[in-house]
Amino acid sequence: MLLVVDIGNSNIVIGVWRNGELEHRFRITTRHDATSDEYVGLLRSLFTPDWLSGQHFIGAVMSSVVPPLLPRMTKVIERLTGHEPLVVGPGVKTGLNILYENPREVGADRIVNSVGALAQHEPPLIVVDFGTATTFDVLQPPADYLGGAIAPGIDISREALSERAAKLPLVELALPDDPVGRTTVESIRSGVLWGHGAMVDGLIAHIEERQGFTAKIVATGGFGELMRRACKRIELVDPNLTLLGLRIIWEKNQ
Predict the structure, then answer these.
(1) Could you name the CATH architecture of 97-245?
(2) What is this structure's pTM?
(3) Catalytic-labelled residue, pool 33, 37, 50, 109
(4) Model confidence at 39, in pLDDT bands (50, 70, 90)?
(5) What dihedral angle (degrees, nearest 10) is formed by the CA atoms of 89, 94, 99, 104?
(6) I need a surface site. Which of 6, 64, 71, 146 has the fewest CB within 10 A?
(7) CATH code matching the domain that covers 2-87, chosen among 2.50.20.10, 2.60.200.30, 3.30.420.40, 3.60.60.20
(8) In what helix (H) or strand (E) does residue 18 lie, and over which residues does it extend?
(9) Helix extents (H) in the chain
(10) Cα 171 to Cα 184: distance, rounded to the nearest angstrom
C-alpha cells in the first residue's frame, strides 16, 4: 500500500493506494496547532487495524502548502508507515515542463493536480481547484505547465462579506435555482456561488482567447461538486485528482 497526503490550508486529504486502486480516502481539518502525537492518534482512529503495524506500506508521498506543518507531518507519516515520505518540491521528478518564471514559486498542490490531469486527459487542459483559493492551472502539449491564476476561494468570499458588511449574515452554502434572490440569504448565495461560477467561466474564456486554444476543463477540490452547476465550462469533476497525482509522482521517483 502507498500512503499519499496533501496538506491544504483548510483540509488535509489522505489516500491509501493498493495495486493501482484508491482503496481509502479521508479528509480531516487542518489544525495548525495540533502536535504530531495528536495527528498520529487521529489517523490511527481512521486506519484499519491491519495497517497499524506499518508493514503493509511500501512508501509514502506528501505535498503541502502549509510549510510549518511539514516537519510534524513527516514524523507522523514515518511513525505510521515506517517510511520517510517523498515531499513534492524542487528536485522531485514530475514529468512537467514548468514554464513559470520561477518554478519554485508554483504551489505543490498545483503541480500535483497537473500531473494527475495529464495522466488521464490530453492537453490543452485547464485544471480548476476549488479550495481555500480557487486556482487555475494551464497545460499545453506535450506536458508544458504554462502557469495560471489564483483567486479568492468561495469560503473566503463568503466570510469576508459577512465580516465587512454588518447587516449581512454568514450563510450556509447552497446554490439557488434562481440567480435572482428574493431574500438576503438567497441573494448572498447567488452572489457568492453564481458570481464565482461566472468568474470561473469568464477567466477560462480569457485564458483560451489569449493562448489560442480551446481546453478541456477539469475541476477538483472541496467545492468542485458544488460549483459544477454554477460553471458552464466545467466538463468533469475529479475529487481524487490530487491523490492520483501524488501516486504518479511517487512512482516517477522510484
Answers:
(1) 2-Layer Sandwich (3.30)
(2) 0.92
(3) 109
(4) very high
(5) 0
(6) 71
(7) 3.30.420.40
(8) strand 11-18
(9) 36-46, 70-81, 108-118, 154-164, 184-189, 195-211, 224-227, 241-252
(10) 10
